[in-house]
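tool_call predict_complex ligand=carboxymethyl coenzyme *A
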Amino acid sequence: MTNKPAELHYDGHTIELPVTEGSENERGLDINKLRDATGLVTIDNGFMNTAATSSAVTFLDGEKGILRYRGYPIEELAEKSTFIEVSYLLIYGELPNAARLKWFENQIGKYSATKDGIKSIIKSFPKEAHPMAVLAASVVALAGFHPEYAEGDLTEAQKDEVLPQLMAQVKNIAAYQYRASHGQDLIDANPKKYDYVSDFVAQMYGKEPDVEVIKAMNILLILHADHEQNCSTSSVRLVGSSKANVYASVSAGVDALWGPLHGGANQAVIEMLQEIQADGGDYKKFILKAKNKDDNFRLMGFGHRVYKNFDPRAKIIKKACDTILEKLNVKDPLLAIAKGLEEEALKDQYFVERKLYPNVDFYSGIIYKALNIPTNMFTVMFALGRLPGWEAQWKEMVETTSTKIGRPRQIYIGSKERHFVPLSERK
Ligand code: CMC
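tool_result ok
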């Protein structure tokens, strides 16, 4: 059924704006002809009402708390799948059969060696450098070491090489920066012996990975693997839309993810919980701070731009948190503080009215901590998980013939025309 177009009446003219509909009945007003017809642009702070693209990768209904990758519910994938299988699903659109999975793993294995120059870049950072700085710099540096893929337009065959290569390289870089920051020798990938996630853990810690740790990490990486047009993914698409190469595009995603309102929230949550603990554990005091408009403090790990009921990822993570800590026999007092804080906030009018619920980052940090991942590396773990989503969205964008360079308009509010005054005449 075609939707009735909307009518816009402006300045004595009426124009029709077509309404398009997606496969889950999401409707959007198509304003492509708006400026030509009326001279008007739209203003949409934070893109709260703007669909930047059509996409077949991820479906999300924030009101109902639904998240699906390529149609598969996140709950089923987290319970039954593996990160590598989900990565393939996101990038290629279907769950792989056994032969395709083997092919994908082999491709990642084939590109598992990291150039010495990249290792030198990682080692040249000060030990206290933030791991996200090391990751972003090293990912963009790959373009300099792999000019064969450093083009915006790649063939099908080249994409089948570079996307698994980037997965192998980001894993290596994440593990290498950890080793380098601890003054330890770098451990190369061993794809003949290990699956992707186990290899990462072996490269990081230099010992046999624990089965429970690998299970937990698979769940966390799956939950982070894509989230439609979020800030980092939009950055990947925006940079990629200029036909910059995939390394530059993904590196931009890493940069955007770093911020505490986005992926950096997982680090900020643990730091907040530690602050509450150091302050005596009175979380009610911090709820008051979060509500106080004169205080910049926000309850980190709470609230979401699109989830207004609950974040389905947070639900899975909260349950996994209890199970994993029990299996690993870890007793973390921060978990009790987090649960108390959540309980208190969920009955508080301020949070209820604004529909603020725990998001994916609220409990993930406690799990990463139990897995011995250092706090400043939590966002790198998020990036490792989000990488196949960035790749899938980048691939979808470059393969869509109607893609245009991303170039928003503005409403100018600066000075009117004025004329140059030589330095000697300026007051
Ligand atoms: N603590 C206290 N108040 C909050 C919070 C919070 N965490 N989040 C939103 N609010 C208030 C905000 O002050 C505003 O109040 P008012 O209407 O009185 O001005 C109202 O709720 C709406 O907030 P907003 O900032 O306009 O909402 P947004 O959609 O622009 O921002 C957000 C979404 C995630 C940036 C925000 O909720 C936030 O800063 N949360 C904390 C950081 C965080 O946990 N980020 C991780 C997000 S999940 C991982 C990911 O996918 O990136």
